Amino acid sequence: MSDTIDQRQPSGLVRALGPVDATMIVIGSMIGSGIFITSAESSRLSGAPGWL
Q: What does the alpha-carbon distance between residue 10 and residue 24 come to, in Å, rounded to a whole number?
């Protein structure tokens, strides 16, 4: 065995969120919820789920 200290370099992905990442998560959530709100409104107006 070697008596040297094992100095490992960090490898792989970094677990971090920056301001741009957080902004994209919020925008994606808003767009995603808008899709469900719009489809609920159209199904309520059409009356039958088969029309969607």
A: 27
